[in-house]
Amino acid sequence: xxxxIPRLDAVVTSRQHGGKxxxxxxxxxxxxxxxxxxxxxxxxxxHLLVGVLALAGLxxxxxxxxxxxxAGLALIGLWGVTSFWIIQERFLxxxxxxxxTARFLPGGAGRVLDLGAGSGRATIGVLxxxxxxxxxxxxxxxxxxxxxxxxxxxxxxxVAAAGFAGRVRVQVxxxxxxxxxxxxxxxxxxxxxVDHLRHDxxxxxxxxxxxxxxxxxELLVVAINRDGWMRFVFxxxxxxxxxxxxxxxxxxxxxxxxxxxxxxxxxxxGALYMLARTPTASPxxx
Length: 286
Ligand SMILES: C[S@@+](CC[C@H](N)C(=O)[O-])C[C@H]1O[C@@H](n2cnc3c(N)ncnc32)[C@H](O)[C@@H]1O
Description:
Helices cover 43% and strands 19% of the residues. It is globular, with a radius of gyration of 21 Å. A seven-stranded mixed beta sheet has the order 3-2-1-4-5-7-6, sandwiched between helices. The protein has ten helices and seven strands. Strand 2 (132-139), helix 6 (152-162) and strand 3 (168-172) form a beta-alpha-beta unit. The protein has helices at 7-17, 25-34, 41-61, 67-90, 121-129, 152-162, 199-212, 228-233, 238-242, 247-257, and strands at 109-115, 132-139, 168-172, 185-191, 213-224, 261-268, 271-277. Residues 97, 116-119, 121-122, 138-140, 142, 145-147, 150, 174-176, 191-193, 196 line the site of S-adenosylmethionine.
């Protein structure tokens, strides 16, 4: 594939030379107009529909309804509209995902594996925020996990729309059994993907990622979290989906059990993130 040095790439690079690391938010918003990340409308616009219906009901029936019912409709309306804003502007369902930490590939270069890349939100985030990186986007590309008609073609279209077409390759595959040779990548990340797997499958994935990363390679996981944002927007989910144990503790334990060293953890709205490293050398033989 020809290497394309796109205009937005140039913006990133020149800004980095000026000391800034990311594209401004306005440009990220502009991306969402020319990309289709494919999330089902019920996720991206369902809350808005509920909010608008509640507010319309309030407007139409305000003289006939009991004040308690009117107050209820007003609250549902406000909740729906506010949740829609959070989904768009804080959870970034329809935007490239900015990298949450400057410590992931700080040199801006390297071979990166995006696990469960889907329609490319995180792939584009890496390509944009780490201007000399190349990404291999791996996914089952099945019809589940909130993205109907999930496909490598859609990912490539989005990456091309962002202007990064020459720096990505798509691989259909299972993150629990990665179709790559050992020590091929400098870093890997998974955004809202490995956290959808059962514990055993997460551990299989962590072992596989350790195999395909070079010694001292980095793994960044951004996992949906039961924080205040999430509780507000999805108040009915939490019992069965997330369980009750603190999620940070669960992820810490998984990383440590799989032999990684955690170097940073933190949070963004609706998610926690952990950045970890594989050992720099294989353990000495007895
Ligand atoms: C909610 S989507 C997230 C996609 C993307 N990372 C994002 O942030 O928009 C979860 C993705 O994980 C993928 N996935 C789930 N299990 C997988 C597995 N075992 N191997 C590879 N991909 C998987 C799904 O196909 C889906 O594209």
